Amino acid sequence: xxxxxxxxxxxxxxxxxxxxxxxxxxxxxxxxxxxxxxxxxxxxxxxxxxxxxxxxxxxxxxxxxxxxxxxxxxxxxxxxxxxxxxxxxxxxxxxxxxxxxxxxxxxxxxxxxxxxxxxxxxxxxxxxxxxxxxxxxxxxxxxxxxxxxxxxxxxxxxxxxxxxxxxxxxxxxxxxxxxxxxxxxxxxxxxxxxxxxxxxxxxxxxxxxxxxxxxxxxxxxxxxxxxxxxxxxxxxxxxxxxxxxxxxxxxxxxxxxxxxxxxxxxxxxxxxxxxxxxxxxxxxxxxxxxxxxxxxxxxxxxxxxxxxxxxxxxxxxxxxxxxxxxxxxxxxxxxxxxxxxxxxxxxxxxxxxxxxxxxxxxxxxxxxxxxxxxxxxxxxxxxxxxxxxxxxxxxxxxxxxxxxxxxxxxxxxxxxxxxxxxxxxxxxxxxxxxxxxxxxxxxxxxxxxxxxxxxxxxxxxxxxxxxxxxxxxxxxxxxxxxxxxx
Length: 486
Ligand code: ZN
Ligand code: ZN
Known about the structure:
Bound molecules: zinc ion
Shape: globular
Distance between the termini: 47 Å
Number of helices: 25
Strand order of the largest sheet: 2-1-3-4-5-6
Radius of gyration: 25 Å
Structural class: mainly alpha
C-alpha cells in the first residue's frame, strides 16, 4: 500500500469504525511507519479502541523502527496486557535498544502484569547484548523464582547470555542442566565457547553432540569454523568445512565461505582463500572481499589486494576505510590521500566507538565524543595517572599511521582516548582494588588500546575483561587470553 492509498482507505475506514478492521489497521499503520509518517499513524491510533488493535499498532511501529512513537502509544494506553509489554520489549531488542528494554522490564515488574516466557526471552537477549552480568544474574534469578518453564529457545538464550557476559563457566552449568535435544541449545554453547577462544572445547562438544544423537546444522558449523578462525587452526577448519559437506550433506552458505576465507587469509594463505572465492557457487559479497583485503593488508600482498579492492568498489562504493588502510600499509600515501579526500567529500567517517561497564545493577556508557558524564574530571585524573604509570612500565603509544589506521574506529584529533579507556578508568575509580573489571565494546578493540590494557592489568594486578565485537579478551598480569590474535 502506498501513502496515497493509505490516506484514502484511512478516511473510509474511519467513517466505518476502525476497531472492526484490525487487519486493515495493521496495514495502514505499517504503511505510515514505513513512510515515516508516525503522526498520521498516531491519529489512526487515537481512533482505535480495543486492546488487540493497540498492540498491533505498537507491533507495526516497532517493526518500522519507530521506537519512540511506539513508546508514546504505549504510554497513553489505559490498559495493557502481557502481549503489550512483550511487544514493546521485543521491539526494543529488535531495534538494539537494550537499556530501554531492561528499564521497561523493571516497570513491568511493578505493574500487575506477570511476565511470561516471551518476556524473559527478550530480557535475557538484552542482557546478553549488553554483557551486563549483574542484570543477567538478577533476571535468571527471577526466572527460577517464577518457575518459568525452559523451552529450547530460553535455554539457548540463557547459555548465550552467560557466555556473552563473560561467565562461560555458568553457561556450561546451564547447558548441563537443561534438556539438550534441540540443536539450538548446542549451537548456543558452541558459539559461546568460540567467542571465548576455547577451540578445543568446541571440538569436544561437537563429538558429544554425536554421542547424544543431535544432528548439527549450518549454524553449528559457523560456530566451529569461527572458533578455528579465532585460533588460527587451518587444518581443523579445513576438516570441518569438508565434513559438513561430505558427511552431513550441509551445503555451505555465504557465511561459511566467509569464515573460511577469513581463516585462510589470517593464516597468510591468501592464494588458497582466493581460490576458494573463485569456486564458490554463489557470488561473493563485500564481507568476503573485505576479509581477503584485510588479510592482504596484514600480509602486504599488493596484487591480490588490488583485486579485492576492485571487487569491493564494484559491489559497494563506500568501503573507504579499508581502502585507505590498504594504501597506507602499502605505503602508497598518494592513494591513501585520494581516498581520504573522497571520504571527506562524501561525508564518510569511521564508526563511533562505544563502551559500557556495569557497576552494581546500573550500566554506564562511554563514547569518545561525549564528555557529559558527571564524573568526567575524576575519570580523566585516573586515566592520566594510568597512562603515566604505563609509560614508566615501557608502554609506548602507537602513533605509526599504518598501525593506527588498522583500527575500525575514528581517532579524532583532540580526543586522545578510545571509549574503552574511559570505561576502564571509571571501573578503577568505582570498584574496590583486586576485583575484576568487565567492559563491553561495540567495535573491534584497536592495537593501541589492547597493548595499553595489557600493561594496566599488570600495574593494577587486576583481571580486566573486554568483550569486543569479535571476542573476549581476558587481560591478566600483562598478557591477554587471545594471545594477540584477534
Ligand atoms: Zn583503541
Ligand atoms: Zn586480546
